[in-house]
Specification:
Number of strands: 4
Largest sheet: 2 strands, antiparallel
Shape: elongated
Radius of gyration: 16 Å
Strand order of the largest sheet: 1-3
Order of helices and strands: EEEHHE
Strand content: 5-15%
Number of helices: 2
Length: 81
């Protein structure tokens, strides 16, 4: 099993974007699961728990399969003196 990154840091701000098919597949599957949760929402506290768990799973996978997160404001310019 290779240790390739599924997500890379965003160029502006904080967070990740998918860069491989695995990253895109996970992101799309997560979005579909979120959509199914939203269309079936009822006034039950279980939905909130599921949403929190889903968000935690998304963050965990992005953290494990992505670059180390940090705030960025564009590409780094290395000026040599």
């Amino acid at each position: 099993m290779t240790n390739k990154l599924w997500f890379k840091r965003k160029t502006y701000g904080y967070g990740w974007i998918p860069v491989t098919w695995e990253g895109w597949a996970f992101t799309i599957a997560w979005a579909i699961a979120l959509y199914l949760l939203i269309i079936n929402i009822n006034q039950d506290w279980i939905n909130l728990v599921v949403l929190i768990v889903m968000s935690g799973i998304l963050f965990f996978v992005c953290y494990k399969k992505g670059e180390k997160p940090r705030w960025q404001w564009g590409k780094e310019n290395k000026i040599e003196k």
